[in-house]
Amino acid sequence: MNSASLCFSSLCALLWLTGCKPVSPASDAAGLVYCAEGSPESFNPQLVTSGTTIDAISQHLYDRLLDIDALSGALKPALAQSWQVSPDGLVYRFKLRHDVTFHQTAYFTPSRALNAEDVVFTFNRMLLIEHPFFQTATEYPYFDSIDWRQRVLSVSAVSSDEVEFRLSQPDSSFLSVLATDFAAILSAEYGELLARQDEKPLLDTMPIGTGPFKFREYQKDVLIRYYRHPTYWRAHGPLAQLVIDIVPDNTKRLAKLLTRECDVAPIPRLAELQMLTTRADFGVDQQTSMNVGFWAFNTQKPPFNQVKVRQALALAINKPNILQAVYFGQAEEATSVLPPNSWAYLADSSRRSFNPQQARQLLAEAGYPNGFSLDIWAMPVQRMYNPNAQKMAELIQADLSAIGVRARIVSYEWNTFRRKLGQGEHDTVLIGWSADNADPDNFMRPLLSCAAAVSGSNRANWCDEHFDEFIASALKTTEIPQRRSYYFAAQQYLQEQMPLVPIAHSKRFQVRNSAVKGVSINPYGGVSFVHAEKTP
Amino acid sequence: MILRYLARRLFLLGFVFVALTVFVFSLNYLFPGDLVSNLTGLRNITPEQHQTLQTSLGLDQSLWQQYIEYNRRLLDGNWGLSFASQQPVLQEIGRVLPATLELASYALCLSLLAGIPLGLLAAVRKDSWLDKFISGMALVGYSLPVFWLALICIMLFSLQLGWLPTSGRLGVLFEVPTQTGFIFADILLATEIDRMAAAQSAFLHLLLPTLILASYPTNVMIRFVRHSMLDVLEQNYIKTARAKGLSRPQVLYRHGLRNALLPVTRQVGLQFSTLITLAMLTEVIFSWPGIGQWLIDSIYQRNYPSIQAGLLVVSSLVICVNMLTEILHTLFNPLARKF
């Protein structure tokens, strides 16, 4: 009895002591919590394309040869301090920095700084079948989608600090590819160690990079913990720890922001942004992003293999309505896969607007006067390019019923969803794309080329030789006006063929606790905490 | 005598387990998808692998043999892999089960600590304003759905007042390695952190889920104890004891309380299954990394090996606890001891 009452009273005392203070587990200024919307699929950017994974890993763990300036979209030196291109556009040489160190962790201690071998190791992995790590991954989605193995002949070290890339044909988007978040530089020494230990898959799950933070632990669906990389080669904010807290539920993420359990969280629902912008203790960062949300038709499946059916469906949906209801006006209506701030954007493409009558007529011409049934796959997660696919699917469902098409909305858990999508089980899908670099090729090829149809990022499963020819020709020249004309032609062709319906280019939002400074969101990909700091 | 009773109980327990494993085993056939994949949790099995697995799993033999093989694998701890993570299911359960046990046991203790005294108080002061107040509150608490209560409490204590965190077991900036799976034990064993601050954070995280989860069993307990006590107080031996001149507290403590609390042991067992079900709801609402949330995630992911294993573990737990309280009840209660 005595000990029980003692227990009880001490419990009460503890309750009293702790109950009155506001909770701030993140009050420790040395640590920052970023609440992400999903678990990463891998810790190696070579193996993924999803924005969630890129946000969670690439800018923190890795560096690239080049970086993209967030403001101008221009390329700037990173691990490569300078580079040269041969006059015929086939040979690229990069001179590397000397002061770049790899992470030292419980599972790896580097014996040397970054050199040309690491760069060769990184890029040959995707190039050479005899590379010891080639087989450890089943695919390299981004690099496969841009036909890396066809475009690059060889990657070799000229000296310990100089690397040479030889291309099979001139490629004006090549430097942009090297600046994407996917072109992260890995450690060759770590690779050797793993090969010796026969633990090759660890290269992608226990990462070693040169980035501002090093890997500490990962609990699936719970959190990722990074520690500061003390010998990072660039100037560095004061954060000792970065935790990526995985909170898939939008409402919970918002609640965690309000209770200070999260310091920074991406894309809160636009409806709630209004509330947060009025509060002084939160800062809302926004950035017009290079992205597009679209509705893709599985063009391998009838009736979506018919152009008229696709055009009819495109005409049937009321985009301004979707923009209002799903994006709350925080997005631009899309008429092309390219966003308007891209230099190749086709401004005068004939805007086809909402026209159910014409849609019905087209359906009748295609042989479906009474409509048909289709599945709309709505992705289960929130993305910048589509903050609420479910709602969008419902709106489209209603629009389609007006032309006699019966739609069923389908959704799965995200990983299952992506897997089934990759297997082409869908009729139509609401999904989107965020650009990794400023080059228009980054929209065209990963989304709609034949190579991407094989690698799986072409959600329309669309393979068209004319289109592939346009985008291939655009890469053969570095002259911007000439490239632009090819992209214009490609966009016009897309307008006719309609393998997917571009819906919106959204703005990117990130809310942070106003004590946090220096977090940058990049229009071309991941979020960076290099210069982040937190006033206690 | 008592040994025979225990043997009978154990026999019953064995029988229930056989039924349970037969059911879980048959799920392998009932779930969609490939049988080998459902049994092992392996994905993308090549035809050659498929052949060897079929032999090693005993699938080329009779159903009865397959069932025996299945049980043997269960006992060996070979429960297959999770579809989602490709980790052994048993290992995953070992990671999440302590969190649920922790939450459920704190809630159960709280419901006993609060429910029994309040129930007794209400019974002793029958029909007074205190009784009416306690009974009324219990009725209200009993009728409130736990998820609603949880959301209201989150709105009030977390979002409005900012006192308590909304989810998880511990502030994420504390790095506490999992050793026992029980958070306070792990904090005690952790070396590189401010243990006091971590324990405080863990306590704050625990508070709301425990209170919410305890609300239903507490109210059931209040009503049950009150009812039981009132029953006992009606008995002739109470009147006899009073007539013999024992004081009221003496009667209550020696004759009333002991007899009234007997059925409560059994009630604990019966409440346990409700408690586990409610714990699952609470876990989802508070993102508590326990078996409930894990099981619900598995259902969303169509993760059949995990669903089976989760079902098996949770059901076994409920059955064992029920059996245990049953036995305890019998041991304490001479009247029920009809061996």
Structural features, described:
The complex is a heterodimer of chains A (536) and B (339). Chain A has 536 residues and is α+β, with helices and mostly antiparallel strands. The radius of gyration of chain A is 25 Å and the shape is globular. Mean pLDDT of chain A is 84; it is low at 1-27. In chain A, strands 11, 12, 13, 14, 15, 16, 17 and 18 form an eight-stranded mixed beta sheet that branches. A four-stranded mixed beta sheet of chain A has the order 1-10-9-8, with helices on both faces. A four-stranded antiparallel beta sheet of chain A has the order 4-5-7-6. With 339 residues, chain B is mostly helical. Chain B is built from 13 helices and no strands. Chain B starts with a helix and ends in a 7-residue tail after the last helix. Chains A and B meet through helix 1, strand 10 and helix 9 of A and helix 7 and helix 9 of B.
Strand content of chain A: 15-25%
Shape of chain B: globular
How many strands, what sense, and barrel or not for the largest sheet of chain A? 8 strands, mixed
The unreliable regions of chain B are none
Biggest interface goes to:
A-B, 38 and 30 residues
Question: How would you summarize the topology of this molecule?
Answer:
The complex is a heterodimer of chains A (536) and B (339).
Chain A: H1 2-19, E1 31-36, H2 51-61, E2 66-68, E3 75-77, E4 80-85, E5 91-96, H3 116-124, H4 141-145, H5 148-151, E6 152-159, E7 162-167, H6 174-178, H7 188-197, H8 202-205, E8 213-219, E9 223-228, E10 241-246, H9 250-258, E11 264-266, H10 270-277, E12 282-288, E13 291-297, H11 307-316, H12 319-327, E14 331-333, H13 356-365, E15 373-378, H14 389-401, E16 406-410, H15 414-422, E17 428-434, H16 441-448, H17 450-455, H18 465-475, H19 480-497, E18 500-513, E19 516-517, E20 520-521, E21 527-528, E22 533-534
Parallel strand pairs in A: 1-10, 15-16, 15-17
Antiparallel strand pairs in A: 2-3, 4-5, 5-7, 6-7, 8-9, 9-10, 11-18, 12-18, 13-17, 13-18, 14-18, 19-22, 20-21
Helix pairs in contact in A: 11-13, 12-14, 16-18, 18-19
Chain B: H1 2-30, H2 35-40, H3 47-56, H4 63-76, H5 89-124, H6 129-143, H7 146-160, H8 183-189, H9 195-234, H10 236-243, H11 248-285, H12 291-300, H13 304-332
Helix pairs in contact in B: 1-13, 5-6, 5-9, 5-11, 6-9, 7-9, 7-11, 8-9, 9-11, 10-11, 11-12, 11-13, 12-13
